[in-house]
């Protein structure tokens, strides 16, 4: 109470107090006192008026009330802010679109309403101008309320926690000058932008909640210069389109395997695929890029001009500080033939297959072999397979190819002479390379023009459902028995039996002389030293068990491998990147796991995009405003401690912290709470081992697990918008116990504790 009283006094002080921002006079809401949670009449139930939430980790200099107030002050939409700080843990800023009218008291939080501007403060043009600005300068701009807006703001992954992006606008650009105009509108509105190309990013980063999506898919012109072999491709190409168009010139750029994936996102992440060991990574074929910078101006980057931006284009992924409009690639002759050989194995053969395959990886990665090989494993029906390919191979290369594959087959299964393997020679209409590609996305061949269709047109990319993925790099050719056992154990522990694609493992080579001969300093790519990567993907990821299982794969491999992964596959919440209080933030751990020199990237970002116009994981609290499970969970904090509770309850689910979800429960709004939020908070808590044993008395384990299962079952069958009445007693037990253990911190006594 004493703290509240002090804050109330502080609120009366004039604006020159150091914590007061310089943009506006800040007032306390009429119906309340300082020190609490902002509420606007009629909106508290759903927090529907929050425009944006920023969270900062411990010690982040930006995590102050002043930053929060300045941000709100600059935004024409923001009518008030709530700042909340837990000492030595995290701080958070919520910006409200409706003027807060009253306060729910909470220690450590401040709620302020925007008053008159401070003398001399020049407000940015209001966000209300953004729509007219975009509509005046672009052929296609979609705003909330427009009939096309819902369809326009989608990304591929429909996983529950990331599938409802909430961008302020979608700018579908048709020319570089439209990109320039779009960026200028965004800068004028004082918000941030994300580029979207193929929309296949696993975490839907391109979907930009709170910012503007700049959709480049229509920038898909291709120029090819036969004299130099250089192709200049618009950033909107899908790989299917680029492969098809380049094949008309007899050329190829090594890219990804699936037709619908964007050239932009894949190349910026450095892009591996079937041609990597023969021709190199996509980013290694990059001569330069054209991009629009943070001032909305067209620029070039090459070895000679803006070389630091070329560095960012080679592995910086979604952190590229600009919108790439064109990629300039060195090309190679398109493969004249493709011979593939696939060998199948049973459910229990995984370890032997992996051991035999990795033993021959060095040989297969030699670019002279002109080979590709990977292991795939699906959980239902459970099996292992490895498929290898030989591109444009002459007889001697083909003989060697068959000898390697047969030897792996022999070592893995005892079968001789290619028994159990199937050879296919791709020589159908359209050329062998395109036929192989058509088979790859699962469309089973057909006319090669299919590849050139728009992303929505082809069947391959249409439905990637709701999936959770992950990846771990392996720096050596062979992996210890213990690590292999850990991986295979996770494969057999598949959480549910939900069909053929529920759990998929992909084992890809990342090394080879083509890749390893490029100096690490060439780009931001952080996997140059990796020999291979273990990539997995689980569908039906709206089910908390699936998410927990996916995380358990990285956790199981964690003790055996360094915390590194291939950017294009690396999951936002890879357990080894979770923050360690006082030691490192999740941002730093995550970036270091996927990039070669994070300090250099930050310097480039600071020089080219000082106001953070382009959303990026390089900026703490600036990235990933959408949900991320367990993002702020720290390991090794004692059971029931304050930090444990704060970290779990501070985790964002559907844009709001689990603590906020809890508050709705108790706030007199009849305890309406989305089931998927309950289940997600539950996953957060259950994935946090130190919290799990904190059982309150009187809740035997069987009862907890029955309750958990029931919640999960309801969640699995619930549609996106289902709301179910839930009392506190119905909350997942881990959250109940955390709240109970820290009720004084939360200022709350549960009304109906059982
Ligand atoms: C089905 C499937 C198959 C895949 N196969 C492969 C594979 O074979 N090899 C591989 O390496 N990866 C593969 N991936 C991973 C893929 O490379 C990444 O998900 C990649 O980010 C997708 O790029 P996109 O343009 O489609 O996605 P988006 O979601 O549009 O973009 C991804 C990221 O790049 C940024 N971005 C996009 N365009 C631009 C631009 N013009 N300028 C600046 N930033 C931009 C976005 O803001 C976002 O952060 C696959 C993914 C899926 C879903």
TrEMBL record:
InterPro entries with a match to the protein in the record: FAD-bd_PCMH, FAD-bd_PCMH-like_sf, FAD-bd_PCMH_sub2, FAD-linked_Oxidoreductase, Oxid_FAD_bind_N
Locate the transmembrane regions by residue number: none
Mind telling me which PROSITE patterns this protein's record contains? Answer: FAD_PCMH
Record region (Disordered): 444-465
Per UniProt, residues of the FAD-binding PCMH-type domain are: 163-334
Read off the Pfam families from this record: FAD_binding_4
Q: What are its cofactors? A: FAD
What terms describe the molecular function in GO for this protein? Answer: FAD binding; oxidoreductase activity
Tell me which UniProt keywords the record has, alphabetically: FAD, Flavoprotein, Oxidoreductase, Signal
Q: Which positions carry the signal peptide feature in this UniProt record?
A: 1-19
Member of which family?
Answer: Belongs to the oxygen-dependent FAD-linked oxidoreductase family.
* Protein name (Swiss-Prot/TrEMBL): FAD-binding PCMH-type domain-containing protein
Upper taxonomic lineage:
Eukaryota, Haptista, Haptophyta, Prymnesiophyceae, Isochrysidales
């Amino acid at each position: 109470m004493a703290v509240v009283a002090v804050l109330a006094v502080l609120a009366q002080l004039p604006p020159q107090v150091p914590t007061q921002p310089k943009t506006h006079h800040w007032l306390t809401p009429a119906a309340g006192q300082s020190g609490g949670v902002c509420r606007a009449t009629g909106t508290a139930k759903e927090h529907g008026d929050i425009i944006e939430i920023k969270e900062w980790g411990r010690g982040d200099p930006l995590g102050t009330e002043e930053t929060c107030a300045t941000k709100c002050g600059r935004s024409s939409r923001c009518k008030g802010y709530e700042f909340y700080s837990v000492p030595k843990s995290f701080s958070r800023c919520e910006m409200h679109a409706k003027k807060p009218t009253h306060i729910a008291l909470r220690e450590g939080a401040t709620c302020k309403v925007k008053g008159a501007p401070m003398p001399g403060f020049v407000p940015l043009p209001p966000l209300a101008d953004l729509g007219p600005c975009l509509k005046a300068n672009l052929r296609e701009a979609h705003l909330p309320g427009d009939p096309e807006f819902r369809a326009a703001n989608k990304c591929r992954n429909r996983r529950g926690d990331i599938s409802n992006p909430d961008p302020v606008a979608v700018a579908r650009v048709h020319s570089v000058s439209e990109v320039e105009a779009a960026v200028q509108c965004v800068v004028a509105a004082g918000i941030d932008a994300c580029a979207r190309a193929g929309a296949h990013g696993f975490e839907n980063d391109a979907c930009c909640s709170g910012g503007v999506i700049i959709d480049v898919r229509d920038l898909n012109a291709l120029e090819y210069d036969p004299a130099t072999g250089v192709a200049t491709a618009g950033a909107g190409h899908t790989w299917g389109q680029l492969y098809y168009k380049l094949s008309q010139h007899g050329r190829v750029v090594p890219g990804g395997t699936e037709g619908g994936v964007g050239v932009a996102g894949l190349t910026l992440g450095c892009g591996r695929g079937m041609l990597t060991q023969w021709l190199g990574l996509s980013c290694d074929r990059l001569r330069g890029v054209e991009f629009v910078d943070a001032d909305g101006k067209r620029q070039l980057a090459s070895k000679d001009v803006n070389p630091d931006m070329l560095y960012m284009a080679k592995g910086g992924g979604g952190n590229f500080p600009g919108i790439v409009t064109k990629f300039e690639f060195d090309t190679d002759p398109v493969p004249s033939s493709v011979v593939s050989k696939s060998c199948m194995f049973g459910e229990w053969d995984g370890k032997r297959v992996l051991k035999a395959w990795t033993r021959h990886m060095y040989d297969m990665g030699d670019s002279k072999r002109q080979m590709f090989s990977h292991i795939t494993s699906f959980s239902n029906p459970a099996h292992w397979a490895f498929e290898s390919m030989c591109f444009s191979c002459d007889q001697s290369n083909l003989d060697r190819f068959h000898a390697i594959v047969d030897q792996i087959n022999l070592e893995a299964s005892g079968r001789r002479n290619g028994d159990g393997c199937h050879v296919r020679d791709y020589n159908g209409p359209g050329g062998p390379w395109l036929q192989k590609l058509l088979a790859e996305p699962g469309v089973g061949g057909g006319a090669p023009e299919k590849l050139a269709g728009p992303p929505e047109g082809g069947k391959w990319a249409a439905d990637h459902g709701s999936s959770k993925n992950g990846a771990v790099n392996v720096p050596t050719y062979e992996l210890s028995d213990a690590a292999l056992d850990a991986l295979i154990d996770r494969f057999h522990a598949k959480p549910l039996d939900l069909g053929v694609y529920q759990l998929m493992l992909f084992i890809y080579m990342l090394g080879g002389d083509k890749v390893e001969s490029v100096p690490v300093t060439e780009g931001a790519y952080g996997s140059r030293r990796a020999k291979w990567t273990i990539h997995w993907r689980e569908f039906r990821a709206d089910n908390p068990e699936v998410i927990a299982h996916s995380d358990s794969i990285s956790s199981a491999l964690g003790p055996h491998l360094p915390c590194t992964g291939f950017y294009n596959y690396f999951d936002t919440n890879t357990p080894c990147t979770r923050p360690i209080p006082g030691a490192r933030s999740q941002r730093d751990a995550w970036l270091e796991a996927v990039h070669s020199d994070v300090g250099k990237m930050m310097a480039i970002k600071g020089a080219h995009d000082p106001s953070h116009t382009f959303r990026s994981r390089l900026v703490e609290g600036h990235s990933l405003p959408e949900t991320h499970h367990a993002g702020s969970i720290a390991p090794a904090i004692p059971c029931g401690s304050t930090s444990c509770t704060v970290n779990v309850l501070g985790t964002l689910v559907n844009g709001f912290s689990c603590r906020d979800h809890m508050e709705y429960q108790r706030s007199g709004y009849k305890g309406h709470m989305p089931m998927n939020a309950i289940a997600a908070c539950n996953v957060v808590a259950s994935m946090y081992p130190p919290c799990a044993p904190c059982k309150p008395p009187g809740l035997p384990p069987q009862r907890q697990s029955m309750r958990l299962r029931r919640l999960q079952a309801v969640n699995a069958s619930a549609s996106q918008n289902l709301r179910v009445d839930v009392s506190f007693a119905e909350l997942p037990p881990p959250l109940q116990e955390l709240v109970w253990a820290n009720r004084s911190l939360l200022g709350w006594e549960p009304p109906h504790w059982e």
